[in-house]
Amino acid sequence: MIAAGELQSFVPFGREHCRNHPNAFNLQLRELQPASELWSSDGAAGLVGSLQEVSLQERERECWQLRKGCKGIREEDVEFEEELYTAGTVVVWSQGSRTQASNVYKAFTVDSPVQQALWCTFAVPHNKKDEEEVEQTVCIVQSSCVNVHTITGKDFISPLPFQVSNVWATKFGLLLERKNSATDSQLPGESLPTVFSMLHPLDEIAPIVCKPAGLFESSRVQYASDASMKIVFSCCQPSIVVSYDTVQGIHSVWALRKVTQDERFSVLRCTADPAVGGTGLGPEKYTSCAIATSPLHYSALHSHPSRILTSSPGIHPRVHSPSISNMAALSRAHPPGMATPSFSGAARFNTSFHSQSPRGHHGLLPSANSTVNETLLVPEMEPILPDLCIEQLWSETVTAGCYREMSSQASKVFLTSDLCENHYLCFLVESHQQLRCVKFFESNNSSQLIFTSVTTIPAKDAEPLQNIDAMLVLEACGSLVLYTGITRVSKVFVPGLLSPTFSLTNHVSHFSSAMENVSTPANAGSRHLQRLDEGIMPSPVSELRGPNIKHHEGSFLDDYHFQHTTPYIHALRDPVCNRVTLELSSGTMLRISIPEIATSELVRKCLQAIRFILPKEAAMKVLVKWYNIYNAPGGPSAHAEWNLFVTCFMTLMGYNTERLAWTRNLHFEVPLSPVIAAKKARPSDGGSEEDLDYLLGSHYHRQINSQPICSNNALTTETMSSPSTPSLKLDSSAPLFPHIPALFYVLHLLYQELQLDELQRARASSLVCLLQQLARDLQLDEYVDLYWRDYPSLISGFTESCVIDQALIGQMPRPSFLTEEPPCVLSWLSSCLRGEEVPPFPCLPGICHRTRLLVLSYALYIIGDEHATSTDKSKYLAKLSAGQKNCASEPQYRRQSSVKVQFSSESLAEQLVVWLTSEGFTLKDLESVPFGVALPIREAIYRCRERPCSDWSEEVCLLIGRQDLTKQAHKMTLAKNKASVGSGLSLEPPATTEVDEEEDGMSDIIQEVTGLIWSQDLRVQEVRRLLQSSRPVRVSVVQLPEVSDHEYIEEKENKLLQLCQRTMALPVGRGLFTLFSYHPVLTEPLPVPKLNLTGRAPPRNTMVDLNSGNIDVPPNMTSWPSFHNGVAAGLKIAPASQVDSAWIAYNKPKIPELANEYAGFLMALGLNGHLTKLATLNIHDYLTKGHEMTSIGLLLGVSSAKLGTMDMSITRLLSIHIPALLPPTSTELDVPHNVQVAAVIGIGLVYQGTGHRHNAEVLLSEIGRPPGPEMEYCTDRESYSLAAGLALGMVCLGHGSNLIGMTDLNVPEQLYQYMVGGAPQGSGRGQQGETQVPQLSDQGG
Question: Residues 209, 223: contact at Cβ < 8 Å?
Answer without folding.
Answer: yes
